[in-house]
Amino acid sequence: MRNKIAPILNLVEYEDKLKPLTNRRPVASLPFACRYRLIDFPFSSLYNAEAESAALFISGSGHSLYDHIRSGSTWGLDSLAGGGVFTHSQVKLKADRSAESKHDRFYYEDHYNYVTRARAEYVVMMGSAFLSNIQIESLMHFHEDKDSQVTVVYKKVNRNELSSDTVYSALELGDEEDCDISGVTAISDVKEDRFNLNMETMILSKKTFLDYLYRAKQADMDINVNNFIKFSLESGCSVYGYEYTGYLKVIEDIKSYYDANMDMLDEDNFNSLFYRADPVRTRSKNSAPTYYGKSAVIENAQFANDCEVYGTVKDSLVYRKVTIAEDAHIEDSIIMQDSCIEEGAYLKHVILDKHVYVKKGARLEGTADNPIVIAKDGVVYAEGEVKEE
Amino acid sequence: MRNKIAPILNLVEYEDKLKPLTNRRPVASLPFACRYRLIDFPFSSLYNAEAESAALFISGSGHSLYDHIRSGSTWGLDSLAGGGVFTHSQVKLKADRSAESKHDRFYYEDHYNYVTRARAEYVVMMGSAFLSNIQIESLMHFHEDKDSQVTVVYKKVNRNELSSDTVYSALELGDEEDCDISGVTAISDVKEDRFNLNMETMILSKKTFLDYLYRAKQADMDINVNNFIKFSLESGCSVYGYEYTGYLKVIEDIKSYYDANMDMLDEDNFNSLFYRADPVRTRSKNSAPTYYGKSAVIENAQFANDCEVYGTVKDSLVYRKVTIAEDAHIEDSIIMQDSCIEEGAYLKHVILDKHVYVKKGARLEGTADNPIVIAKDGVVYAEGEVKEE
Amino acid sequence: MKTETVAMILAGGQGSRLGKLTKQIAKPAVPFGGNYRIIDFALSNCANSGINDVGVVTQYQPLVLNDHVGNGSSWGLNRHNGGATILQPYSSVDGEKFFKGTAHAVFQNIDFIDQKNPDYVVILSGDHIYKMDYEKMLDYHKQQAASLTVGVMPVPWEDASRFGVMATDRTDRIIEFQEKPDNPKSNLASMGIYIFSWPRLKQYLVDNQSKNRQMEDFGHHVIPAYLRNSEAIYAYSFEGYWKDVGTLESLWSANMEFLDPDHDLNIRNRDWRVYSKSPNTTPQFLTSSAKVKDSMITDGCYVAGEINHSILSHNVKVGKNSVITDSFIMPNAVIGENVRIEKAIVGEGAHIYDDAELVGTEDDIAVAGYGEEIGGYSDEK
Amino acid sequence: MKTETVAMILAGGQGSRLGKLTKQIAKPAVPFGGNYRIIDFALSNCANSGINDVGVVTQYQPLVLNDHVGNGSSWGLNRHNGGATILQPYSSVDGEKFFKGTAHAVFQNIDFIDQKNPDYVVILSGDHIYKMDYEKMLDYHKQQAASLTVGVMPVPWEDASRFGVMATDRTDRIIEFQEKPDNPKSNLASMGIYIFSWPRLKQYLVDNQSKNRQMEDFGHHVIPAYLRNSEAIYAYSFEGYWKDVGTLESLWSANMEFLDPDHDLNIRNRDWRVYSKSPNTTPQFLTSSAKVKDSMITDGCYVAGEINHSILSHNVKVGKNSVITDSFIMPNAVIGENVRIEKAIVGEGAHIYDDAELVGTEDDIAVAGYGEEIGGYSDEK
């Protein structure tokens, strides 16, 4: 199949409520499900749609993201023959562009250059906070069938599936049958308990994108899905909603991040997210199989390669290169790469970021609603002291 | 040969005097000699030394650099099996760390992590502004033979080879025979007309590097060659100078950048810089041969692939995808990628950055000491007007 | 992921009519146009047509060809689970598997194709110079519900007897195939480009093999068998530049045609690029004694002499007072001073010493072979 | 850049003693240890020893092996102008070139080696499990100014007659070679690892070929010829784990040994890693009904049953109430519910249906072949 889409990923997400996990990484680089980072999910959607290139708009230096993406070859986004990942740092985008006038100048230009040069018919705009498995080809076919100006992805959700102070919005459907959209409402203003969550993922023709880009520039507005819906409605053009029915979690705070990981221990959720034409792709790392010792007791848990497990692990997710000693007990927890849990330690409702050391006999117990998070490189002592590096 | 070195490239260079060429790119990404960027030269030195990895410390977002380097595979710096390019954005490094406390925290840590994890015996520190062809293996052998604590590269130069307000320094040699170094002096304080230019390129053992890193952190000092020389001299340890005798140009302002390009039209300089065990490596791009039409007149000039030339080109360098129409006259100039020169245009002592359009009959004439620079995407009209995009 | 289409590029031939140019390398690996090798055109066509799964069947002197093709990354083929796969003779429990003909080469590689499980197989030759969108031909194949579609192009009637020609009915269905006929019934020459529906072709190859019927060559055996069985075979007409560079004269004239800035191939067209594996080399250096007219020069060249209506491939050196006219110089050739080269092909890495001459005519192109040395004095070597 | 050393990995053998495991794939491509194929050990040794130029000589059923090795990038070999090159039979103006033996395979690929122009050639076998620093052996070769150095390891005297043994003098110079002798004069067994000084070896191969002397096998022809001519042949002793996994029993027992966390191979040692081509797959999912003891499990596995002292390679599914003991399960195998597997090897992609049994003994390992289906009812299939 030939490449048909030019994807634009806006990776400037709300990250404050995800601290300390986002201290040194953007939301897109958050580790997920033992082997992945959140960016792997939209990237794998692009891979399945055989996209040749992608433009990334990021804030800050983005080096954790670069180190993961490298040339983009894992996702077919690299090639000597055209294509590639084009990265654009917009620091903090429009929000405080005054402070970053140097970058501001290129905000519209970078979008313009990428889209005009891409060999593609459509532009797809997406982000990394809506953890999901969107089939871009189906979205494209829907868009073509409807002969839509712009098509936006939504999912029917209940209010309690989102953070109580969510910043996201709902789509108002004009005619349920026809899926045309009549407006966008902040969720805080929505009265119903069940609504159509705007997944801020859009497809539109290259030509329409360039029209709207020009309008955004004239009005000094952000280039994003919500503004583009507005432009389209104002012009009286058709805006259609494409319903997504698979697994979705909006990663907006520690709780939703924790829940999303735990959701993977449910086979239906796991399959919804991981079952694709191709597997979800992540940068491959050389590794040895995980060894489970004679004393290991495992119940409903997921592991990556390269671990050594001698203790008890229940209802938890364990990332690469983790060592769990005999008599250690881990339950309802997320243990990231390179962590080490010594004998007799007890962890429940805990998130350990990378390279955390839990000393002999240490105990940490959070709650499902409020898991304890230990930042990268931390050390947890038996006396209850936590030392952050 | 097995990898022996862990290279650290400090790419935070003085770029103000190189504007507008450095408006959107660091010194390391400056185009050079029709096909290259300055970073290709230290990277090719690393390639010849069979380095497996490199740590880059950059300022700003560095995306033009990332887009050139990609996975680093061009220079053997990428591999699934260990290795890779590790990028660290220190924004403005120590100079105004107060303003960037978020990054400051990781300045020492990033260096520490890279060096401790690298499978190597030595650390090599270098930059991108000293355009040269250093053979790291010879440097390493010299270092081993001298049993030196740290070894620094220098070149004997005359004052007039540098910018009059150069910010660089000279090395004082204790004993010319023995090459031991007794101190570092700012060039403005050097009385002699010929001196040993400190090329700010150093080799030292991993252990010594980590010692000095610790000292720098304790004293809240920069990690750089000059401070490390100081530490070594203070401790009474041996510091040796390794003399480099090949082509060198310090890229510190427009004039030195212009001269360096023009130097390439001299075969001796060209060979000194390009003759290596392996060719200088740059990211390869698919291209067609350059076509020289029936009306073309070429005299002492260099071209990249993918040009179409119908006019006159003398003593000039022409980058990729440049079109030069009949009756256009180009002399003593640098024409970068994607530029287009229309009929009858006349350019002398000019630098055109990428994608500059010179209209029919336009004339630009600078001087060898003060070439005219047209910034990226500019348009030059016959009436003498220059429009910058 | 299911693969709809697999392309098989038959690149195993020696190309013996290219004489000393193909002693050490296979014909599809022969350099062309300054920056290319002949097989780049077929590979780029695949990439531009959206066909990412390509088997390159090699057999004769494959080192240079295999190194050039690699995993297909130079053509962007290695994305999305696709890639170029080199297919060479091998052994199995059934014995040794050399390739005895075009169809036999496909038969011996059934396992490779079955791994990909395609609906269609596109059979291509590795030694033609052209730009063609195979996707359009595939669309036509589907639309006709054909079991075989043959790429054809009209040739002048007087030349038709030099080709395999296809007689068609009004619907473009092929009703007769004539291999180099004395009295051609059609001027539609086969370009050696076939799209087969794979399950049917596999059946023909396996069945006939098991019955010991000869099924080695597409033109001689497979197409006649399809015709005998009234399979739906359609002709797909191609109009555009197409050249078989099987002889020294055609290789030379194709290069000379390529020099024309208005050439049909339009090598600078960014929407249909011809990709190749680019060497790491320096810029082109034209010294003050150089004179260059109506010529293509490639990165890595050093030119101190005069170049007229010629192509210099990468890393060619031309000394002072040498004059090269109407010639194609392959990569890494070194040409000394006071040399005269005219209507010639100079092979890769050949060395033409000072004062030598290499002069041919349009009908008898002069050739220096791969690595050949011409001229010079014995005491200098 | 001059290449000092080229390694040639001989990976062409069928490995017929592995029975149905090597019907469709070459022995060096057989999976091992959960995440590896046998050839990964030789390739990783090359990478870790700083040898980046590796020719992999393949001949028998090479598709899986070639796809696995690729350009060597999984082992980091593709840097600095090095890389893995697949060398398969081919034809030339001299005719067809199949490989008739270990030395003949090197003879047929002289062009490849000469391209690299090395001082030394390291000859390796693609089917041994071990970690060895060839650079140290090369240093020894240089120090002895040897024309051939043979890697040897001491074996128990009673086993010596099963090997090719090397009798040495006090300086470790080899004075006699006995192939599987009844009365061994030495207990130093050849590991099939040779370092040759290339110009000398080339001379032997070319001269003897031109005189029609048999020079097909290193053990049978080349070493005896070297000995006859009093070439400097030295033995280099290796101590450490080394295993030829040429039979089903040795493949099984090598996997069982590999399970020991204190195994000599030390697979988790980051200073001498064993690299492989990693598949893109999901994390390991151990459900609430899983029981896993003293076992290795690899990414992509889904385990609802009981695993005791066994290795599951990637993407293996094990249903509820199934019990796997003392077994090695290759990638992509699917094991249903209520299955009992003991002292067995289950081949790639094999399917063991519900309620089936596959039980062997230490002396007679049970085997399910590549893609084989065991158990199940016909109406379900």
TrEMBL record, chains A, B:
<comment type="similarity">
    <text>Belongs to the bacterial/plant glucose-1-phosphate adenylyltransferase family.</text>
</comment>
<dbReference type="InterPro" id="IPR029044">
    <property type="entry name" value="Nucleotide-diphossugar_trans"/>
</dbReference>
<dbReference type="Pfam" id="PF24894">
    <property type="entry name" value="Hexapep_GlmU"/>
</dbReference>
<dbReference type="InterPro" id="IPR056818">
    <property type="entry name" value="GlmU/GlgC-like_hexapep"/>
</dbReference>
<dbReference type="InterPro" id="IPR005835">
    <property type="entry name" value="NTP_transferase_dom"/>
</dbReference>
<dbReference type="GO" id="GO:0005978">
    <property type="term" value="P:glycogen biosynthetic process"/>
</dbReference>
<keyword id="KW-0320">Glycogen biosynthesis</keyword>
<protein>
    <submittedName>
        <fullName>Glucose-1-phosphate adenylyltransferase</fullName>
    </submittedName>
</protein>
<dbReference type="InterPro" id="IPR011004">
    <property type="entry name" value="Trimer_LpxA-like_sf"/>
</dbReference>
<dbReference type="InterPro" id="IPR011831">
    <property type="entry name" value="ADP-Glc_PPase"/>
</dbReference>
<feature type="domain" description="Glucose-1-phosphate adenylyltransferase/Bifunctional protein GlmU-like C-terminal hexapeptide">
    <location>
        <begin position="295"/>
        <end position="363"/>
    </location>
</feature>
<keyword id="KW-0808">Transferase</keyword>
<dbReference type="Pfam" id="PF00483">
    <property type="entry name" value="NTP_transferase"/>
</dbReference>
<dbReference type="InterPro" id="IPR011832">
    <property type="entry name" value="GlgDAde_trans"/>
</dbReference>
<feature type="domain" description="Nucleotidyl transferase">
    <location>
        <begin position="17"/>
        <end position="159"/>
    </location>
</feature>
<keyword id="KW-0548">Nucleotidyltransferase</keyword>
<dbReference type="GO" id="GO:0008878">
    <property type="term" value="F:glucose-1-phosphate adenylyltransferase activity"/>
</dbReference>
TrEMBL record, chains C, D:
<keyword id="KW-0119">Carbohydrate metabolism</keyword>
<keyword id="KW-0547">Nucleotide-binding</keyword>
<dbReference type="Pfam" id="PF00483">
    <property type="entry name" value="NTP_transferase"/>
</dbReference>
<feature type="binding site">
    <location>
        <position position="190"/>
    </location>
    <ligand>
        <name>alpha-D-glucose 1-phosphate</name>
    </ligand>
</feature>
<comment type="subunit">
    <text>Homotetramer.</text>
</comment>
<keyword id="KW-0321">Glycogen metabolism</keyword>
<feature type="domain" description="Glucose-1-phosphate adenylyltransferase/Bifunctional protein GlmU-like C-terminal hexapeptide">
    <location>
        <begin position="289"/>
        <end position="361"/>
    </location>
</feature>
<dbReference type="InterPro" id="IPR023049">
    <property type="entry name" value="GlgC_bac"/>
</dbReference>
<keyword id="KW-0320">Glycogen biosynthesis</keyword>
<dbReference type="InterPro" id="IPR005836">
    <property type="entry name" value="ADP_Glu_pyroP_CS"/>
</dbReference>
<dbReference type="GO" id="GO:0008878">
    <property type="term" value="F:glucose-1-phosphate adenylyltransferase activity"/>
</dbReference>
<keyword id="KW-0067">ATP-binding</keyword>
<dbReference type="InterPro" id="IPR011004">
    <property type="entry name" value="Trimer_LpxA-like_sf"/>
</dbReference>
<comment type="pathway">
    <text>Glycan biosynthesis; glycogen biosynthesis.</text>
</comment>
<dbReference type="Pfam" id="PF24894">
    <property type="entry name" value="Hexapep_GlmU"/>
</dbReference>
<dbReference type="GO" id="GO:0005524">
    <property type="term" value="F:ATP binding"/>
</dbReference>
<feature type="binding site">
    <location>
        <position position="164"/>
    </location>
    <ligand>
        <name>alpha-D-glucose 1-phosphate</name>
    </ligand>
</feature>
<dbReference type="GO" id="GO:0005978">
    <property type="term" value="P:glycogen biosynthetic process"/>
</dbReference>
<comment type="function">
    <text>Involved in the biosynthesis of ADP-glucose, a building block required for the elongation reactions to produce glycogen. Catalyzes the reaction between ATP and alpha-D-glucose 1-phosphate (G1P) to produce pyrophosphate and ADP-Glc.</text>
</comment>
<comment type="similarity">
    <text>Belongs to the bacterial/plant glucose-1-phosphate adenylyltransferase family.</text>
</comment>
<dbReference type="InterPro" id="IPR005835">
    <property type="entry name" value="NTP_transferase_dom"/>
</dbReference>
<feature type="site" description="Could play a key role in the communication between the regulatory and the substrate sites">
    <location>
        <position position="98"/>
    </location>
</feature>
